[in-house]
Amino acid sequence: MFDVTIIGAGIVGCSISRELSKYNLKTCVLDKSSDVGSGTSKANSAIVHAGHDADPSTLKGKLNALGNAMYTDLAKELDFPFKRNGSLVLCFDKQHLGDLENLLHQGQKNGVPGLVILTGDQVREMEPNITKKCVAALYAPTGGIVCPYEMTIAMAENAYNNGVKFEFETGVTSIEKKSNNYIIKTNKGPIETKIIINAAGLFSDEINNMVSDHKFKILPKRGEYVLFDKAVGDLVTKTIFQLPTKLGKGVLVTPTVDGNLLVGPDAVDVESKDNLCTTKEGIDDILLNAGLSIQEPLPMNMVITSFAGNRAKNSGNDFIIGEAIDAKNFINVASIDSPGLTSAPSIAVMVADIVIGKLAPEKNSEFNPIRQGIRKFREMSNEERKEIIKEIPEYGKIICRCETVTEGEIIDSIRRPLGATTLDGVKRRTRAGMGRCQSGFCATRVVDILSKELNIPRDQVTKSGGNSILITGKNKDLL
């Protein structure tokens, strides 16, 4: 039996698991996918929001700036990419300067440090490519960018190394109350636990509604994005937002921690939580709106891919965090849409405090906060490259040319704690396949390495687990 079982291995669930691993608790994380971070955590804006956007009376307003402040130390401890590049909220009309000032005051109430309103000329001194139509902007120096899936993986690996158990491809079918505990029925058998933490993202309403008579409904909202090649990754250095108006918040333009340029998202209500389709209309709208922030037309010949992610919203437009009123020891961490990525560390502390208040565990004296990531060949000096090739010859074989990813990195991504078991798992840990050719060159070699390392036939290697088989037969069989 477990003390705590977390349902959902996204950034929130993994952050909570890492926070709980600081205590002597028997903790388990369940996820129906084949890897951590397979839902919203892998497809979002990758923004660490400063914290000026949310109402101070909401959980979003209270947790955003707190979470933001934790990122510097977490990135050092867990070795994931993070940069405080700062953000700008652009104002295009002097009549809306009052709205910009309201945003400033709201951010100050939320505890956001360093906020200042700049003139249009000051903005263009900072960012020369910003449109001349910009008359002012709110500058937030604490705004940042992060790799959300690398951060999720880092949280999970560190939690695992500190004693947390992870069960993948384990879907919850029902939950029953038994005396003072819960029985979670899954496709792999029952799990008994004292406390359940519902961090199931888009499906958190379904988990809650198995237990509580206080129902809620997640309203999925799809956001589409367009990703540009690294050749134009320096078009802006800050994350560029548009001042929200009656027509909406507009779209953002931002560099990524890996050197690309990202624009998006739009916001479309969808019926299916699994609807991750991109559309011509959505992409056209994103590019049109993003272009309002930039002087020159966006370089369309540098687009390398588009993608979409669904956000878990509810009618109350705030996080749902806390014990269900009618279900003791069942803790909801639901409807975590933006700024959920930023708030994940502070959400984890808040939820851990609830658990500690219930179980009063002792601290884990052997807790190790340090996690070492995969050594990245593309970031090494020539001397460092020579040394690592001597130590591990596989680092001398480039598999992904676009991102300069070696066989040694791919092998490490498979062999390390909670290692990759799919093509997407390797991709999110190493960036193999994320470059200009989008896996056109390296996919077959990665399949070969996965086959060898996992000791499975090539035709059993999947893209993302389940039935996502990559190889269905041999060409010569058809002759």
Write a compact overview of the structure shown.
With 479 residues, this protein is α+β, with helices and mostly antiparallel strands.
Structural write-up:
The chain has helices at about 10-20, 60-80, 95-110, 120-125, 150-160, 205-210, 280-290, 340-360, 380-390, 405-415, 425-430, 445-455, and strands at about 1-5, 25-30, 45-50, 80-85, 85-90, 115-120, 135-140, 145, 165, 170-180, 180-185, 190-200, 220-230, 240, 250-255, 260-265, 270, 305-315, 320-325, 330-335, 400, 405. The protein is α+β, with helices and mostly antiparallel strands and about 475 residues long. It has three domains: about 1-40 and about 150-220 and about 315-360, 3-Layer(bba) Sandwich (FAD/NAD(P)-binding domain); about 85-140 and about 220-310, D-Amino Acid Oxidase, subunit A, domain 2 (D-Amino Acid Oxidase, Chain A, domain 2), CATH 3.30.9; about 375-470, Orthogonal Bundle (Arc Repressor Mutant, subunit A), CATH 1.10.10. The strands form five sheets. Strands 1, 2, 9, 10, 11, 12, 19 and 20 form an eight-stranded mixed β-sheet that branches. Strand 15 and strand 16 form a beta hairpin. Helix 1 runs parallel beside helix 5, helix 1 (about 10-20) packs parallel to helix 8 and helix 2 (about 60-80) crosses helix 8. The radius of gyration is 23 Å and the shape is globular. The model has no long low-confidence stretch (mean pLDDT about 95).
